[in-house]
């Protein structure tokens, strides 16, 4: 049956025109408006143009249509805007003081309505036509809309054939709606502008490295999280538990990258609160049992989020200071967006078994003139996320791991992923504030993207998989722990002397000449739970006659598993790329295992015994070829 006929037969007394229902709104009323792409555009436009409405308070989470009216002085006189999140189209109005921003976690907004801390007189919402049993659907906007509707004295619904019917906690019965306005119109288009910049590509590449197959992911609001999804198409069996479904999810569903099979909470279902995209996305979620749309007090509740094992939260920020504090809702004193769900998901993911959070942001703003990794947050900037909540920070220059790290370690991690133009200044300020040692060397000012080519993995006979990458200045504490985990004889075999202490000064000497071309160290990392520890190090340093001196040290419990042989091959590949013609090594005469490695891998190398009794090995790459596997 046509919805119009259904309504006329079931509840003809509820059908009104938009102009007629506006007469039900009284002076001084508090009016809730549906969210985002689910907002009732026709009702909002009619309300804004109604001459009899005065001193009306409007509550909304994400606004779009209101942007058409905020420059009209008459509208601003008659309507007060209370927004929980400042969308891009409303920022100018926020900067001009036309919006009253309500900072609140998304998970808590429904409770504000339920407790009457924010009382509501009227709710203007949008629903789909009813099914045969009289149930409409909130479609692409359940979020805080369901609570707003349930706690308003009067509910006015725009019934729109374009609104999808979605699965989950989205049903609204006709009996719970006071008035119906039958008006069809396309939903708001919520596709963010994308530039596919080199910065976004590099950030997407780094974030992708942190996301394992089978993880459940959440993406925050904004262009960058939307763009990051484009770099997940090499994953398998991802799950989704997120506030917002955007257009960028579509290819991952269609390629079956997202299957939700391995989720521990609502397996087989992509859980969300709202959907913002194009007609193609709205068509995809329409009557699609893959989706489970629920209110924000479920989706964004940290205790619910934590029920997803391997939950990874990915969100953006405006700036991050050297201690790990994050600002994401204001530019100085000017409110720019909102708290949203970032803190909810950071805390939920941190409580998840195997879960963690990622803050992703470009390293600079204003065309490179301003660093977004900063010594301190801008004056007036709000701390949306405390320094205790952050796991990883990602820029186009790499990954900083902050959880469990001291201020000294955080400074080094974050300076390392700042734009090269700002690294020395960040270290200088950190020295002044006694965050780091007074003699701390700054990270290299080179763009170290080429180090990605030095990364590799190796599966060992004992079932462990090791990751290999270049040693970085931020590894000082990890390297120190590695040194003190070694037995005295292992240290002597590597350094040819008894070394009892690995102080900061020793570490500075180790890092002083690393340029990753002439001098480099490759570390092997074994994962223990969420964390990695160094278990092997291979190093080469420029020597004479176009050769590099090479050396290794492997922790005792990882010896005799082929690590030295593997590191030898990796270092040879890197040395050849950097123009070296061979290696030279000096090995203690008593170090039979290392001599065996060299003899096996380079049978044609020149072996000689020095006056000290140590062995010198000279290797020419052209003669020897690659080491055997």
Walk me through what this model shows.
This protein has an eight-stranded mixed sheet with strand order 27-28-29-30-31-32-34-33, with helices on both faces. A seven-stranded parallel sheet has the order 4-3-2-1-5-7-9. The termini are far apart. The mean pLDDT is 90. The chain is 27% helix and 24% strand. It is built from 22 helices and 34 strands. Helix 15 (407-417) runs antiparallel to helix 16. The protein folds into three domains: 3-182, Glutaconate Coenzyme A-transferase, CATH 3.40.1080.10; 198-432, 3-Layer(aba) Sandwich (Glutaconate Coenzyme A-transferase), CATH 3.40.1080.20; 453-624, 3-Layer(aba) Sandwich (Aminopeptidase). With 629 residues, it is α/β, with parallel strands linked by helices.
Features:
24% strand; Aminopeptidase; Glutaconate Coenzyme A-transferase; 629 residues; seven-stranded parallel sheet; elongated; eight-stranded mixed sheet; 22 helices; 3 domains; 27% helix; alpha/beta; single chain
Strand percentage lies at 15-25%
CATH architecture label name of the largest domain: 3-Layer(aba) Sandwich
Sequence stretches where pLDDT stays below 50 over 5 or more residues: none
- CATH level-3 fold name of the largest domain: Glutaconate Coenzyme A-transferase
Number of helices: 22
Q: How many beta-strand runs?
A: 34
Give the distance, in angstroms, between the N- and C-terminal Cα atoms.
Answer: 72 Å
Structural class: alpha/beta
Shape: elongated
Question: Considering the protein shown, what is the CATH homologous superfamily of the largest domain?
Answer: Acetyl-CoA hydrolase/transferase C-terminal domain
Question: What integer value in Å does the Rg equal?
Answer: 30 Å
CATH class of the largest domain: Alpha Beta
Q: Percent range for helical residues?
A: 25-40%
